[in-house]
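[step 3/7] fold_predict: job queued, chain A
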Amino acid sequence: MNILLIGGAGFIGLPLTKKLVEKHRVTIYDSLMYNQTLDLPNGVTLIIDEVGNIQNHDIGGYDVVLYMASPRLLQLGNEDQLQPELDSLKQTLDKLNNKTKFYFFSSCSVYGSTKEKATEETPTMVTSFYSKLKIESEKIIQKHSHKNKTIWRLSTLFGYSTTSRNDLLINNFIRDINDYEYLEIYDGDSWRPNIYIKDCVEVLSHLIENPTNENILNVG
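[step 4/7] structure written:
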């Protein structure tokens, strides 16, 4: 398969690229905001550009497009930041070939605060600009005429990647223990689904090679 990873130089993108390139042709489209020194496997093509310029690129020839381009939680501080991200997503969908399988990386954050175990049928809830961005992105995808699409709601990742992330819950815990030698818990009754990055890569690569019919799928 010919696979395009939009935002593929990020925390999950690079490990997934290294897994997929073992069997497939892989292209990364990324602005390199978080990682300027990529150690890419042989055979990976790199397109360096902002996702807002996706209309300048031909993406119609890919069998699979993975859309993981997104600001991080702490980078979103106001409502005005959301619309450019939503516009870029819409432009990407508009340029897809009808046969292309499109996967969008959403988040368990869309479920907000609930005392029940979240399933794909659990109503979404806006609790931050980040969760609102994911919820509004999902609405655009579901309404778009492109038929061959799946939304992945990923649990919170943790673990090591070439692109570091210390803003993730468990990575935060490990950093605090290493730096301060103690761990401070603010809400001991809260819980959140987590998934080890290597396990997530295995799950996603399996789903890409063995597509399902679900429109929305929890991963984690």
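[step 5/7] annotate
The chain has a mean pLDDT of 89.
DSSP finds five helices and nine strands in the chain.
exit 0
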